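User: Working on a comparison across species. This one is TetR family transcriptional regulator from Mucilaginibacter panaciglaebae. Can you predict its structure so I can line it up against the others?
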Amino acid sequence: MDKDKIDKKDHILDVAERVFSEKGFDGASTRLISGEAGVNMAMLNYYFGSKEGLFLAVFQRKIASFQIILQNLGNDESISAWTKMEQYIELYGDKVVTNNCFQKLLYQEMGMNRGNDLSDKLRDMLLKNVGTLDKILREGIANGEFKKDIDISMVIAALYGTKNYILNTPIMAKPLLGYDITDEKMIETKLKPQIKSFMKNLLKAYLFN
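Assistant: Here's the predicted structure for TetR family transcriptional regulator from Mucilaginibacter panaciglaebae:
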């Protein structure tokens, strides 16, 4: 694909990401997105096929590079399982609170449990990240670094669930944490360090003999 076509696709994806974040999946339309992107419907349908295809393309673009980084981490044989866990938490803590509007849209869509092809594809993409964490935990158990009786599914739920609760319920998070999690400065100086420090301490206490 030549550079002009790549640039055009990226432009459409940029606009689609903003529109989806502002209006939600149901509230957005391909006609609105094509209009704001300055392209005709035929071009949008040629590249993405449907609104569902466009949403998946937006999501895939956002997580593709992150997935490669996580997979490389999981496959690194030069460091311990715990070092991998620490690095996973660092990467996750930095990534998940970036572009919070899109994160909320994603988990809102997953929480609706539509039971359709879109939900299944979103789930499968997310499970790749979960799979890397599962692999690291099993590696630590196998080599004796972690306790043998740890509950892997609950470790994963604790890591992902803590973030989801804080970011998706700001009305609770502000009085709970004592600062505004919608403030970018507070996210960088307070929330990210707090999530990462807490999860490392929590999981270190749980995983080790």
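For your comparison, note: The mean pLDDT is 87.

User: Helpful, thanks.
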